[in-house]
Amino acid sequence: DADVTQTPRNRITKTGKRIMLECSQTKGHDRMYWYRQDPGLGLQLIYYSFDVKDINKGEISDGYSVSRQAQAKFSLSLESAIPNQTALYFCATSDTIKQYFGPGTRLTVT
Amino acid sequence: GQQVMQIPQYQHVQEGEDFTTYCNSSTTLSNIQWYKQRPGGHPVFLIQLVKSGEVKKQKRLTFQFGEAKKNSSLHITATQTTDVGTYFCGTGAGSYQLTFGKGTKLSVIP
Question: Are B67 and B19 in contact (CB under 8 A)?
Answer without folding.
Answer: no
